[in-house]
Amino acid sequence: MDDQLMWQSDIVDWEKISVESYKFVIEQAKERLDEVIEESQAITQKVMTILLSHVTALSGVLGYVFSERSRINHERGWAIVSICIMALLSIYTFNLLFRLIYLKILFFKGSPPKDIFFKEVFEGLSEEEGLKSILFDEVIRMQKKIETMEVENIKRIVPYRRALKVSLFFIVVIIVLIVKIIYN
Predict the structure, then answer these.
(1) In the chain, N or C terminus with fewer CB closer than 10 Å?
(2) Residue 124 Ramachandran class (φ > 0 left, ψ -120 to 50 alpha, else beta)
(3) Model's pTM, two decimal places?
(4) Count of beta carbons in the 10 Å neighbourhood of residue 22
(5) Least confident piece of the model among 39-43, 70-74, 162-166
(6) Is residue 1 part of a domain?
(7) How many other C-beta atoms lie within 10 A of the C-beta of residue 137?
(8) Mean pLDDT across the stretch 131-146?
């Protein structure tokens, strides 16, 4: 995402707004930012659950296939084809899941002092106007964080759903293979 906000404040005379109004807006922005961060964390948690389930199912199947108790005749080609299909599905799913885990954008809820407190904010302003200037800038920063996180969460939902579908398909294939092995 570029450095532009999707939302632009239409307030021209920010100095005329009361400090209490700024504090209210910032409080509401904090709540919204918490919500979008929690949504991002929920997506990551769901991805981790899918990843662990996938690894567990894959380990179990491969452990059984290569065990001495397996009734699979390894000379037959279908076992090798099944293993190749599972490997391809697993590689694809792991790729989706790892991208969802490691390529997410992280934001901190607050702003560092270097972004808030510098002399240009206060130059030529009274004490109250300087405070309003800081609060106005913080509102803009919080809006940018909220918008960026919302866009990022929307982008992450698509590969998450794809990974979920592939993982469910993978589990169905495993169940079918297990049932076929048991009843043959």
Answers:
(1) C
(2) left
(3) 0.72
(4) 18
(5) 70-74
(6) no
(7) 15
(8) 86
Specify the amino acid at residue 10: D
Burial class (CB in 10 A: 0-12, 13-18, 19+), 170: buried
What pLDDT, in 10s, does the model give residues 77-133?
A: 666 777 777 788 888 888 888 888 877 777 677 777 777 777 776 777 788 888 888
Residue 167, in any domain of the structure? yes
Q: Tokens standing for 43?
A: 């997506």
d(CA 78, CA 9): 63
Single-letter code of the amino acid located at 21: S
Q: Could you tell me if residue 164 is inside a domain?
A: yes
Residue at 9 is within a domain: no
How many domains would you assign to the chain? 1
* CA–CA distance, 116 with 130 (Å, rounded to integer): 11
Distance separating alpha carbons of residues 118 and 65, to the nearest angstrom: 65
Task: Give the count of beta carbons closer than 10 Å to the beta carbon of residue 44.
Answer: 16
Full residue range of the structural domain in which residue 176 is found: 16-182
